[in-house]
Amino acid sequence: MKASTSDSRLIPFARLNPKTGARAVAELHQSIRRGMRGVKLHPRAEKFSPLEAEPLIDEIESERLPVFLHSSHELNCRPLAWERIFRRHRRIPFVLFHGAKDAFEEAIAVARRNRHVWIETSTLSYWRSGVILERLGASRVVFGSDLPYSHPAVERMKLDLLLSPSERKRVFSDNPKRILGE
Questions:
Q1: What pTM, to 2 d.p., does this model score?
Q2: Which domains does the chain possess?
Q3: What are phi and psi of 39, to 5 degrees?
Q4: Are 57 and 84 in contact (CB under 8 A)?
């Protein structure tokens, strides 16, 4: 069964738990057959380490899919904890969701060292989002909302206030297309 939607702007992703091993790999391939275009990993909720995620990421890389990674200042979610994985898997884009929250400076540093790492700024303050944009540039940031924790209109307004029209096009359209290989 193929994933379908009446809105072609909606792009399906699969949230996988690396701790389930072969079951996660099977779900990855089943999701690809159904039209999934990327993977979301949540090391805080599923309590896995970068090392535990690596076998699944090997498989994701063989499929050339982007990885959206929950990032924060918490154990197993810090960008520095994942940097070895980023360096080993340079053929796929990684997006650090929530800009690593209190570890946002760390996220900027890791993204600067790894050109295939992007930052998404949902749930971050206006000021932290501005620092990320100032230091990393709009060409490495993507829009996200993290509904229900933040409303898409709030996240959109924050970026609308911070970005020029050409930067908005990059963050809302061009960058996601690059991440998806379009």
A1: 0.94
A2: 14-179 (3.20.20.140)
A3: -125, 140
A4: no
